[in-house]
């Protein structure tokens, strides 16, 4: 029982301290176009259902409901057994990473933007909505998703483009064409 509790605690998002710093444009760099998605085409919508197979288990089935709920297969994360699925409603969108080995589903705020090493990633909810903006931080370890937590957006700033992702910071631009470095530390 103690082992189960420890394993569950290890999976909880960690507390993150973070800092925003406006930086000059010269410090802002774009990562080389990281291609992290493959699209083998084996997962297509059939009869209003998107079926993602899971090894040795029942598949994950996502059923479209007309204009209310729509699921779209985006692709597989390169060199993993993870499939990215986009979930659309009239007012919102989410992204799911489906583990085709375990059947586990991780919910992301957006499509992930990966670091050059393909391990670290961040997601930011849609800056075009009136919702508070967050940046979600995660990593891939042995082909599994580990969500570290999320950072609150800076009040009055809407991040539009995530440039580079590193293990402890992210470079972004905002809707006023300012450049920011978001540094974070896990506690």
From TrEMBL:
This is Uncharacterized protein. It comes from the Bacteria. It comes from Chitinophaga silvisoli.
